Structures are given as structure tokens and as C-alpha cells.
Amino acid sequence: MILDYKNIYLIDDDAIVNRFNRKLIENTKLFEAIEFSLNPSKSLIDLSIRIEKNDKFPGLIMIDLSMPEMNGFEFIDELDELFEAKNLINFPIFIILTSSTYKRDVEQFLKTPSVKRFLTKPLKIEEFNKILKELNI
């Protein structure tokens, strides 16, 4: 499986937020593919199929924390377990994009090495570009 850093995957249960973020990210012209999902459970299935097929895998995943079926950290934990089960050592970069300012969420972010940034909504182009530069994407 190859991580594709020109592919970003957006997961947020709010369609308006996904459309806004997609448009903002398209304007950067840095990504060849911008995928989005409203459902983390379905995203997990989609991404696990890609792992099974040894397909290209998004190198950057931007995810909301508060979603009905599964929160962002649960999603990351599930994906991490899947990677471990397949003995995959390269893990995608995660950026949390949330409206949460709870201390416990920030503390959890600090304990999750694959999550590189914790941002509050709405996504701002200057901040996003700065992060991409810092992450060498």
C-alpha cells in the first residue's frame, strides 16, 4: 500500500463543512484528489478495502471529532488497529478539525502520535497552508 500525499480525505458529518473545506483545499491546487465522507464508519470500510487491495491510500486525513456513530479518535484507533493487523508501518497524517475546545480533546490529541495538528473550525486557508508547509506536504 502506498500513501499518496497528493490525496486528502475529509471526514465530517456536516455536508456544508465538507463542501466548504473541499473548495478551500481545491483552491490551494496542492492535491490531485480531494475525497470526502459524511460517515466515519463507511470511511473505515472504504479505507480497509483499499488496504486489502493494496491500493493508493490518502496520505492526509482531516477528521472532525464529534460525529454520531464514531468520533474522530475512535476512527483513528480503529484504523491504527487495522494497520497493525496488516503489519503496515506507514500511517497517514491526521489533522483534527473540530469545533471542540474541550481540554480532554486537546489532551487526547497530545497522546495520539498520528494526529499532527488540532484545529478549530472553520478551516482557514493561511493556517492550512502553513501546516502543509510544516508537514512538508
Describe what you observe in this structure.
The chain is an alpha/beta fold. It has a single domain (2-134), classed as Rossmann fold. Helices cover 42% and strands 26% of the residues. The chain has five helices and five strands. The protein has helices at 15-26, 40-53, 72-85, 103-110, 125-134, and strands at 2-11, 33-37, 56-63, 93-98, 115-120. A five-stranded parallel sheet has the order 2-1-3-4-5, sandwiched between helices. The chain starts with a strand and ends with a helix. The mean pLDDT is 92.
- Tell me the overall shape: globular
Q: How many strands, which pairing sense, and closed or not: the largest β-sheet? A: 5 strands, parallel
CATH architecture heading: 3-Layer(aba) Sandwich
Across the major sheet, the strand order is 2-1-3-4-5
CATH classification, class level: Alpha Beta
| Number of helical stretches of at least 4 residues | 5
> What is the helical fraction, as a range of percent?
40-55%
- What is the radius of gyration? 14 Å
Domains (count): 1
By secondary-structure content and strand pairing, the structural class works out as alpha/beta
List segments where confidence is low: pLDDT < 50 over at least 5 consecutive residues: none
Termini separation:
19 Å
What value does the average pLDDT take? 92
For the structure shown, list the relevant keywords.
5 helices; 5-stranded parallel beta sheet; Rossmann fold; alpha/beta
